[in-house]
Amino acid sequence: MAQLHKRVFEKDKLLPFMQKVLALKEAGQPAVVKEELMVQPNTWWGVKGGYKLEFIILYLETSTDFQQALPQETQQNIAEGSKGLFVNYPIYSTTGNNGDTDPLGLTPAQVNLLAAQGEYSVMQNRQMFESFLSEVAV
To answer: Can you tell me the distance from the alpha carbon of 126 to that of 133, in angstroms, rounded to the nearest whole number?
Structure first.
């Protein structure tokens, strides 16, 4: 019953969506997927439903294409895993990633690398974003 409070899209649409994400990841590409789904009513959250919603998901995942474009030193640091500068990259822990007392605990280098991956993901899918945003602006 509690799961119904979390749902605004048809449950059977999740697997095809995740298959698209996985295919992009396996191809080394950024996991960026454009979807159009029918919104289901959800009285718990006050969602009326009955309309289509088009959106783009930038799914945070490893992109080997991006990593191969990085400087060799950065690639080596990523490859070092928990012993390198980019512990848990790209899916950093939400608290104490580096064991610091700082609640978030990310270094400037970790934040910059994640921002660079985000930029790369958008730029590799530039036409998708431009098309989507031009439709929204109308």
So the answer is: 10
CA 100, CA 60: separation in Å to the nearest integer? 23
Rounded Cα gap, residues 97 and 54, in angstroms: 34
> In the structure encoding, which two tokens stand for residue 19, read together?
């298959």
| Residue 38 pLDDT > 70 | yes
In the Cβ-directed half-sphere of 60, how many Cα atoms lie within 13 Å?
Answer: 11
Q: What angle do CA 64, 93, 6 make, to 5 degrees?
A: 95
Residues 6+ apart with CB under 8 A from 103: 95, 96
DSSP sequence for 68-98: HTS-HHHHHHHHTGGGSSSTTTTS--SS-TT
What is the per-residue pLDDT across 50-77, written as a single tens digit (0 to 9) for each?
Answer: 999 999 999 999 999 999 999 999 999 9
User: Which residues fall within 8 angstroms of residue 78, CB to CB, at 6 or more apart?
Assistant: 67, 70, 84, 86, 89
- Dmax of the chain from CA atoms? 52
